Amino acid sequence: MVCLVCKSEKNEYLSNIKGLDGLDYGIYNCLNCGSNFTKVPDNISEAYNKVYIQDDFSSGYDKYFQIFQGIKKAKKPLDFLLDQQPLYLPIMNFIKKRKNLKILEIGCGLGYLTYALNQSGYEARGIDISEKSIALAKKEFGDHYENSTIERLSGGADKYDLIIATELIEHLDQPSIFLDRCRELLADNGAIIITTPNKDYYGKKYLWNTELPPLHLSWLGISGLERIISDKKFNYKFFNYLRNGVAFREKTNLLTDWFVSRNISYRDFYPAKSGNDGKQEKVYLLKRVFVDCYVIRLICNLFYSVCFVTDLRKYVIVSMILTKN
Questions:
Q1: Contact call for residues 260 and 266 (beta carbons, < 8 A)
Q2: Facing residues of 319 across strands?
Q3: Where in the chain is the domain with CATH 3.40.50.150?
Q4: Half-sphere exposure of residue 38, counting CA atoms within 13 Å on the CB side?
Q5: What's the start-to-end Cα distance of the chain, in Å?
Q6: Model confidence, pTM
Q7: Are 36 and 219 spatial neighbours (Cβ–Cβ below 8 Å)?
Q8: What is the pLDDT along the chain (325 residues), one digit of tens a residue?
Q9: CA distance linking residue 244 with residue 111, whole number of Å
Q10: So what CATH class is 44-241+312-324?
Q11: DSSP collapsed to 3 states, 169-231
């Protein structure tokens, strides 16, 4: 097997896991860049279509529909998105002092980020390989979307000041080539913002703590991202979520989550009880104390921020901002 991230042949087989489609996927670890990856399935687009219409294996993706349904009610759509997910922080920080940006969102899904950017005065366009998600986005938000890929756009006349790919690169079978295509579409002084689940955050016991195959094909962290761009002549920096106040922007306890990432699973830490109706109700006892209680959550997050503020590897999201040399 060749690593999907850095193309190294130095890797080791770890184990098989059951994918979202019920099939077995072999998981490999790259000894060169540290990423975990799996074999690319034959037809990936069908998996995305099923997710966006909440078919049989799309459990957990209802969060996207909740944002999709709620964003048009928000007076400030970008602030609304930030309240939902902190991964939008690097985008907000990049655009807040810049005007008249031409923006391309790759893997726009249901289109709500592209919509929020247009509502804030930017010229934004969204593309996605899912026909169904693009159809929904156009119906709800207007004609700012296209069922397309970066390969179809490359070589065209349009150039962009900012290209956004949030939680996309882990879906790709050729992430290095993807960055080459993005570079072709960048205007002078343009930038790319890439966000992905951070493998470096988790302890070594975790085989695959990201969305299951075939949706996610790799699980990478800082070393994997650095390896991809090593020969691309980009300037880059990583966004420090902790230094930018993520601990106080969402209802989560970063300290207990860190312990979970090193020692025990989420389900073990937040035990469930059976309800009176005999059904298994997700009543998380420790969650009530450490997450729902504002004072305790605040104390834990303050402690976590002081301990880990200089080390962005300790946060569950990693974001890289690239600019042309």
A1: yes
A2: 195
A3: 44-241+312-324
A4: 26
A5: 33
A6: 0.88
A7: yes
A8: 899 999 999 999 999 999 887 889 999 999 999 999 998 877 666 666 665 555 444 455 677 888 998 999 999 999 999 988 889 999 999 998 898 999 999 999 999 999 999 999 999 999 998 888 899 999 999 999 999 999 999 877 889 999 999 999 999 999 999 999 999 999 998 999 999 999 998 877 788 988 889 889 999 999 999 999 988 889 999 998 888 888 777 778 888 888 878 765 555 555 554 444 444 455 467 778 888 888 999 999 889 888 887 777 778 899 999 998 7
A9: 25
A10: alpha beta
A11: HHHCCCHHHHHHHHHHHEEEEEEEEEEEECHHHCCCCCCCCCCCCCCCCEECCHHHHHHHCCC
Which amino acid is it at 76? Answer: K
State how far the Cα of 176 lies from the Cα of 289, in Å rounded to an integer: 44
Both tokens assigned to 172: 């790709």
d(CA 121, CA 102): 10
Tokens 């770890």 belong to residue: 14
